[in-house]
Write a structure and sequence with these properties.
The protein has 421 residues and is an alpha+beta fold. The chain folds into two domains: 212 residues, Cytochrome Bc1 Complex, Chain A, domain 1 (2-Layer Sandwich); 181 residues, 2-Layer Sandwich (Cytochrome Bc1 Complex, Chain A, domain 1), CATH 3.30.830. It is 47% helix and 19% strand. Strands 1-2-6-3-5-4 form a six-stranded mixed β-sheet, with helices on both faces. A hairpin with a 4-residue loop joins strand 9 and strand 10. The longest helix has 19 residues. The chain is globular and about 60 Å long.
Amino acid sequence: MGIDSDLPKLVEEHSIARGVRCLLYRTTDNPTVAVHGSIRAGTAIEPKTQHGIAELATRLLIRGSRKLGPEKIADSLESVGAAISFRNTPDAISFQARMTSPWMQRVLDILSECLTRPSFDKRDVEKEKEELLTDIRLRDDDPTRRGIRELLQRVYPKNHPYSQDRFGTAESVKKIERTSLVDFFDDNVAKAPVILAFAGQFKPDRALKWSGHTFGEREDSSKSKTFSGTGQNPTRKEIVMAHKAQTEILMGTLAVDRLDPDYEPLNLLNAILGELGFMGRLGQRVRDKEGLAYSCTSFLNAGLRGGNWTALAGVNPKNVDRAKKLMEEEIKRVIDEPVLDQELEDAKENQTGSALMELESTEGVARTSHNLVHYGLGLDYFAKRRQLFRKINKSQLQEMAGKYLQPSRTSSVIVGPKAKA
């Protein structure tokens, strides 16, 4: 067995206060420390009239507190070769820090200031709003991102948080004021559950003390709002972007959340369809064999509140109909016929090997242990998955295809220029 199966023995779990969980993985052969954490306060909890506020608040965290301004933070980190970053996701605001062991306290003190006492300086708010508005314009001019945004709005039930792009819209972002950001932080970020993972060479008591002092008592994660629904009726939409050279084909359907028993076999099926080798069966058929696409792949997204499956291809506008037909044929093939024995074994080896590769670094251990707890999978997940993989067979994958990938469930979006006559 590898480190993946040994995680329960190697990582200590501590519930240091209500709503605050801390994971510790100690090494002695690498004088670095990696921290990966999250606060359950991402896009999913945004008010309906303030889409983009979680993204804007997250971007402002690195601009510091009244005590530490952005220049001071940058100088303090760069002078010791450390780094801190923040990212907004649908389910949480995540943060990462990396440093050499002697400078752990300095970096943690800065991280604490950013996470608990952000200044939301008025000038910084306006500057970040302009940056976010620029990113929204770039997003809306990108055929792939525009297509994914449109597809998710058609796949998920109405008002589901995963149907919303984390950037929000230009209209919603322009309306966000500093007072709204302060309220969002105080009412949500400052109270939401926290998960922290430390990996590397450090003193456990120092990590635990810092975690307790920084976050204190939090709300119970079991109070988090859940969503349900069967999705919307499948539709097809075409968005013309005449100034682009390539057309994007996107097809998608509602799938499962990360804890659903169907996730593992459906994920293996997706690996065969759109990942293994070079973009899986879709890439081999549409790109390699027929030469109709620059890229053709698929992916499965699964979060705390649901998930979706998407297939996409970038093609010459004149090849849209033919490429889409071939993609549909490959999807129908996994519905009608079992996959090959070797394909299934390759998919299982791919997933097992990817986990081992991720755990080769302290950053990877911190990130992985955090994610296992964040999704409620448990640190013994990889050991349980090895046993589960032995039981998953070809008929289960075919069952997943029939259950989730039927044309009657699938919406499509075409984005790009029209083919020239």
